[in-house]
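User: Could you walk me through two proteins back to back? I'd like the raw sequence and the structure tokens for each, with a short line separating them so I can tell where one ends and the next begins.

Assistant: Of course. Protein one, sequence then structure:
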Amino acid sequence: MGQAAKVLQLFKTLHRTRQQVFKNDARALEAARIKINEEFKCNKSETSPKKIEELIKIGSDVELILRTSVTQGIHTDHSMLKMVPRKDLLIENVPYCDAPTQKQ
């Protein structure tokens, strides 16, 4: 796949991830859209293949962090937040055990 296609694919992936991560939050959706577009416009004239690969790697890392680490919180009153994790963030929770049992 050519670099131009990789860049376009990353651009689309970042926007799709933005829509999933900031679902129902118009301010965050708009801020993320502006930031993504701004960063791509800022580097639009880059011609060095090495620098472009580096930027693609940074963009991919950002997408991974957004997808795996960001949760939404909703203000329930002035000092309380209700966390709203996405289904893909929920993992099987294994309880901690101070004294593990010996397998026989």
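----
Protein two, same layout:
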Amino acid sequence: MGQESFIYSFVARGTMILAEYTEFTGNFPSIAAQCLQKLPSSSNSKFTYNCDHHTFNFLVEDGFAYCVVAKDALSKQISIAFLERVKADFKKRYGGGKASTAIPKSLNKEFGPVMKEHMKYIVDHAEEIEKLIKVKAQVSEVKSIMLENIDKAIDRGENLAVLTDKTENLRSQAQEYKKQGTQVRRKLWYQNMKIKLVVLGILLLLVLVIWLSVCHGFNCTD
């Protein structure tokens, strides 16, 4: 999976695009803008439109819309994971201030490169993210099933001991899925730290090489 899986992304306040990013030419921005005009303005939800082998994915929350255009081979869950990441970063940087007063596309220079980095991160860690999404879905499914079973048991008048056992089973399975999710997140953190350490090592090595070249050794005195 390459970074070209993501084609175009923007953040908008209402129907006003504040920041956008793409490395491709085409009519993706205009189609995405048309979709933006048709989104319900008052709802907090997720929407996906399909067009010409691409998906136009939207996350709408608190008057802001976050969009990414992706190839249809990329799962909707991965696109939504990207939008959630962009939303969190955008709100952290601009929430309650610049976001509410910025003019159209005035945040391109600041936030465009940030969206590019998030695209790269999601693509590089797509497998781990999909595993985490599956774990969360399993937790939700188990919880729904167990709660439904408990409701049915109450309707049948089963005794409290049986209900307690079912509740304990639900708690045990939820803890196991939570443990799996924690392990995936920890793996992602270690991978990021490893990359940072490698980059730092390379920079230090370059500094050392430059020092030795300029000073012809470790003693750099006139």
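The chain has six helices and five strands.

Let me know if you want the two compared in more detail.
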